[in-house]
Amino acid sequence: MTINRLKHFRVMNAETQTQAAKAAGVTQPTYQRWETGKTEIPKSHLAKLAKHFKTTELELLGRHPPKKAAFYDDEAPLDLQYYGECAVHFVGGGEPLVLSISEEAHAQAYEELQSDKRFIVMKDLGNRTVAIRHKAISELYFSSEAYDTYGPDHAYYKLATPIQMPDTRDWAIVEAIRDEEIGGGDHTSDFAKADVERVQRQIMITDEQFDELVAEGAIKPENLAIEKAARAAETDEIMALAHTVTVQFSTGKRREIAYVDCNLFECIEPLIDIHYPYGGNDNDEPNMIRLPYEGYHRTVFFNPDVLDYISFPTHKIEEGEVESYDDGLIDGDEANSDDAMVIKLPKTKKRGRGRNEN
C-alpha cells in the first residue's frame, strides 16, 4: 500500500466519500479502496479527481517534488518563503523559544500579537506548531534573514528545530524511520523508496557515508567515533520533532512527552479555534488541556493558564485535523439516521481551514 493524499483533499473540500465518488463517477466502495490505497486509481479517474479538487495528479498521489524553504524567492508560496527567526522571551524567565519561520508565519504572528487572542500560533520550518500563551510573553523579537543575530541574548539562544524541512510528508517518513528503529517492523514501505532514501540523507549519515568521509580526508580516523556520536545525537534530536510534544510552564519547567497514538489536533484545537466548541458547551475556553498520549492507559491534563507554550509536530496536527473533520462529515441521507453524528461541521468553515497545496 502506498499513501496518497485523496483523503486530505476530500476532507479539506468538505466532502464525504460518497460525494467524492460521485464526482469521480464511481461507487463509494470503489472510491474508498482508492483512498485507503488498497487499489490503484485508474488514470482517467485520477485526472477527473485532480480537476475536481483543483490540484494536480501528482499532488493527489503525494508524489510531487518535496517542498523546500525558499531563500530570496518572491515567487515561492508565502508558507515556504524563509523570513528569518523569532525569539520569544517569557515573563516567568523560562528558556526563550527561537523559531525559524516563513513569511506567512511572520505575518500571522504579527497580526495575532496585536489581537486579544488567548493563545497565538506559530509554525516554524522544522515541523513545529506552537501555541504560545499571549500573557506569558514578556518580549518577542522578529529578525529577518538579513541579520545574523536573533535578539539581545543571541549568544545563548538555541533553535527549537535544528533543521528546515517544511514538507509535512517528509516528517511522516521521519516518524516511520524512527518507528522502525525503535520497534522494528516495516513502516517505511508506505512511502516511495526514493523519498525514504532522500529523507534519510537529510537526517542521518550512514556508516558507508562515514567511511567515504574518512577516505576523502574530511574526517580523521581518530575522530570518527566522536563524529559518529555527535551526528547520532543530532539525528535523535531531529527524530524527536516527529513524535514529541513539548510543554514549557510559567515556572520555566519543561516537559517532553512522546505520544504513542492520539489525535494531537484535538489537543490544540480548543486553544486556537474561535469556533470551538461546535455545540453544546457555553464555555469557549477549556479549563484543562487533555493529551491522551497513550489513550486510556496514560493521559495528562495541562492547566493552560500556567503555560508558556505547548509545541506539537505539525505533520501530526495536520493528520489529526483531517481525521477530526472527516468524522464530522455526514451525507445528507445519513444525517436523518439514528446513527448519525450529533455534530455536523458547516462546509463554509471547513473550506476556510483548508491548506494551500499549490
Automatic annotation (TrEMBL):
Gene3D superfamilies registered for this protein in UniProt: lambda repressor-like DNA-binding domains
One GO term in the molecular function aspect is:
DNA binding
Identify the InterPro entries for this entry: Cro/C1-type_HTH (IPR001387), Lambda_DNA-bd_dom_sf (IPR010982)
> Locate the HTH cro/C1-type domain: which residues?
6-60
Please list where the region (Disordered) is annotated.
329-358
Q: Where is the composition biased (Basic residues)?
A: 346-358
Q: Which SUPFAM superfamilies match?
A: lambda repressor-like DNA-binding domains
What CDD domains is this protein classified in? HTH_XRE
Q: What is this protein called?
A: Helix-turn-helix domain protein
Q: Which species expresses this protein natively?
A: Blastochloris viridis (Rhodopseudomonas viridis)
